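Researcher: Please predict.
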Amino acid sequence: MVFYFPRFACSTDLPLSLICSQVGITDVFYLSRLFKALTGSSPTAYRVEHRMN
């Protein structure tokens, strides 16, 4: 489920907590740690760097 997060993070302005619930993760902090471990960036930094226009 975390694999869908980058697409959601870059294509919407929804808060990270709502995106978490959409991909099935209830703990935003867990997702942040997992995401950073997998991508090397925090979810917010990734969103800024990869924003789709």
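Model: The mean pLDDT is 80.
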